[in-house]
Design a protein that fits this description.
Layout (H helix, E strand, L loop, with lengths): L3 H7 L1 H34 L5 E2 L7 H7 L1 H8 L18 H4 L2 H5 L18 H7 L25 H9 L1 H5 L16 H4 L12 H9 L9 H7 L9 E3 L8 E3 L8 H10 L5 E2 L6 E2 L6 H5 L3 H4 L4 H5 L2 E4 L2 E4 L10 H4 L8 H38 L4 H22 L4 H4 L1 H28 L14 H7 L4 H14 L1 H12 L5 E2 L3
Antiparallel strand pairs: 1-8, 2-3, 4-5, 6-7
Helix pairs in contact: 1-2, 3-4, 18-19, 18-21, 19-21
The structure holds heme C (HEC) (4 copies).
């Protein structure tokens, strides 16, 4: 065959034909590429709602019809298989792992039952199951108020909208058991109409007000942490806001640090409970996770909770936010390696290294606190006076608050290792000051020998030591779960069947 250039020289129209065909081909390829791009961005951004529901729809599965990717990933929070060295999603009995906790919380609900936190979809179930909410069968009331539901469910914003926050908090826990049934979900963090992140809990907005700030001014990146700060924070029940109501309040007026919150509680002479052994007026740190995170390097560099715990995912060309909120160590590729180039193994060992070092001193502080409670009890038993004990009890209160501030801030050892270590160190100092005062007092009361460390090698032994019958509580709880809870769910299902949900496409 002759070369193409010779052919074109003989028949010039052939050249023109070739030129035209090439242009058409390029044009067609261009069309195809642009249509693919358009489809992709359509899939990612164009939103065709399948159902229409009200702004306070509490059922995650209803929202899930419109947002299947987010809903499917949210559902994975029911997975309990992942365990890291210290955290993860398994329902671990922390009182078994660390029986010292039973003594530290003697006289308070946490000494009955304390499990490691797991996925968001368990929040309601775990609150029903815990011995801390008691067994309100028949006329019996729960020892806890309705305020305890506040961080568990999108039924909470629904109810607060109906009755106001104070009415929601009012009353004992079992009185709203049939109302709060859907576990943490969409409506807790999103506005249904715009899907923008929103603050659904008044306690956070009120704390901002008292600090002279407006939560409405928060940036988008700040909101990616503030939605979590509705629940993962320190709080207490303030009885002075509305008469007879345990009003959910964040103690942030002086600031976020352990010392600033401690001063806040001291000023108002607030105590969560009186310790059963030492009779110290105690504070229970809830989970100042947001506050501690704010003191860490990631917060300082503008990295939000969502960056690590709700990372972006890409599936079949679609980008979406992974709503499987969990330990990031189960997803280092998306949680960390978008910013860090190190190997997965290295990043995980960075986390463990910080945790190991902090837990070493945290355990030491726990042991010293157990000793201090037991020694204080000995002093009381030997006839110590209130005035002789006052300074010692204050030391116990402050030292244990600092321990709890560090220990209860889930993830704190990684979120802010330096501050966590500092707080534990101040706790060790204060508890030892208290023990020096105690040993002088014991000496004056005629006791010179060492006060023996109790045998609290197991959870059962520790509960026995503080005089608790956990088996009887569990039996009552089982009865409650069998006889009362199914009625709550039935009542809720009946109510929900009347919610307006319109199907737009069959
Ligand atoms: C704990 C808070 C939280 C809960 C609960 C939550 N989301 Fe989100 N959601 C977020 C955050 C944070 C983002 C990222 C938003 C951003 O940066 O603009 C997001 C983004 C989204 C987006 C935007 C698209 C995307 O994937 O990034 C959709 C849609 C969405 N969520 C749907 C849902 C649905 C459906 C549920 C309930 C099954 C739900 N979310 C529950 C916090 C939450
Ligand atoms: C409405 C309250 C609420 C909000 C909002 C909330 N959480 Fe939670 N979170 C909880 C509760 C309660 C648990 C414990 C659930 C259980 O153990 O039953 C929990 C558990 C967790 C866990 C442990 C999961 C596991 O598998 O161990 C992580 C991680 C977490 N939350 C991160 C976040 C992040 C990040 C945000 C913000 C994007 C957030 N949470 C928003 C209440 C909330
Ligand atoms: C959005 C970006 C981003 C993400 C996501 C992120 N980091 Fe970082 N990380 C940073 C920045 C920025 C610093 C500060 C480093 C600097 O400024 O030199 C930092 C610092 C660190 C440090 C050293 C600080 C310290 O505590 O001493 C460690 C360790 C670390 N990151 C581990 C992780 C791990 C593990 C994850 C995933 C769970 C993660 N990071 C996710 C941006 C990120
Ligand atoms: C730079 C990444 C990063 C940021 C930002 C971050 N976390 Fe974490 N978080 C981690 C890592 C890593 C752990 C430790 C996980 C482990 O030990 O398995 C953790 C642990 C936790 C845990 C305990 C998880 C479990 O399995 O029990 C909770 C709850 C939590 N973080 C909530 C938050 C909240 C709320 C914020 C924002 C205020 C936040 N985190 C910000 C990386 C991060």
């Amino acid at each position: 065959m002759k070369p193409i250039s010779t052919l074109i020289k003989q028949k010039p129209w052939l050249g023109w034909l070739l030129f035209l065909v090439t242009i058409l081909l390029v044009f067609a390829l261009g069309l195809l590429a642009s249509s693919i791009m358009e489809r992709r961005s359509e899939a990612a951004y164009a939103f065709t709602p399948q159902v229409q529901y009200t702004n306070l729809e509490p059922r995650n599965e209803v929202w899930g019809k419109n947002f299947p990717m987010e809903y499917q990933s949210y559902r994975k929070t029911s997975d309990t298989l992942f365990r890291s060295k210290y955290n993860g999603s398994a329902p671990i009995d922390m009182l078994k792992v660390d029986p010292r906790l039973v003594v530290l919380w003697a006289g308070y609900g946490f000494s009955k039952d304390y499990k490691q936190g797991r996925g968001h979809s368990y929040a309601v179930k775990d609150l029903r199951n815990t011995l801390r909410t008691g067994a309100p069968v028949g006329e019996k009331k729960s020892p806890m108020p309705n305020t305890c539901w506040a961080c568990k469910s999108p039924d909470v914003p629904r109810l607060m909208n109906e009755m106001g926050a104070a009415e929601f908090y009012r009353g004992t826990w079992e009185t709203k058991g049939h109302e709060v049934v859907n576990s943490i979900g969409c409506s807790d963090c999103h506005d249904a109409e715009t899907m923008e992140l929103r603050i659904s809990r008044p306690a956070l907005a009120e704390a901002y007000d008292r600090m002279g700030k407006n939560i409405e001014d928060a940036s988008h990146q700040e909101m990616r942490s503030l939605v979590c700060a509705q629940c993962h924070v320190e709080y207490y029940f303030n009885e002075k806001v509305v008469e007879g109501v345990p009003y959910l309040t964040f103690p942030w007026d002086n600031g976020f640090s352990a010392e600033e919150m401690e001063a806040y509680y001291d000023e108002m002479e607030f105590a969560d409970w009186t310790h059963k052994l030492s009779r110290a007026p105690m504070l229970k740190a809830q989970h100042p996770g947001y506050e501690l995170y704010m003191t860490g390097v990631h917060a300082a560099r503008g990295v939000s909770c969502a960056d690590c715990h709700l990372p972006f995912m890409s599936e079949g060309g679609q980008k979406y936010t992974d709503h499987h909120v969990q330990s990031p160590l189960n997803n280092v590729a998306n949680s960390c390696q978008v910013c860090h180039r190190e190997e997965t193994k290295q990043l995980i060992s960075d986390v463990y290294e910080r945790q190991d070092r902090i837990i070493e001193n945290r355990d030491k502080l726990e042991e010293l606190l157990v000793r201090c409670h037991v020694e204080a009890k000995m002093a009381w038993d030997l006839g110590a006076e209130e005035t002789q004990m006052a300074a010692i009890l204050q030391d116990i209160r402050h030292a244990q608050w600092r321990w709890d501030y560090a220990a209860a801030s889930h993830g704190g050892s990684f979120h802010s290792p330096v501050e966590t270590s500092r707080v534990i160190a101040t706790g060790i100092h204060i508890v030892q000051e208290g023990r020096i005062k105690l040993s002088r007092l014991l000496f004056a009361l005629g006791h010179t020998a060492e006060v023996p460390y109790p045998d609290i090698a197991t959870k059962a032994k520790a509960q026995d030591f503080i005089g608790m019958d956990a088996a009887a509580m569990q039996a009552a709880k089982n009865e409650f779960l069998k006889t009362v809870v199914p009625g709550w769910d039935e009542k809720a299902a009946e109510r929900e069947s009347a919610y307006p949900v319109k199907t737009l496409f069959e």
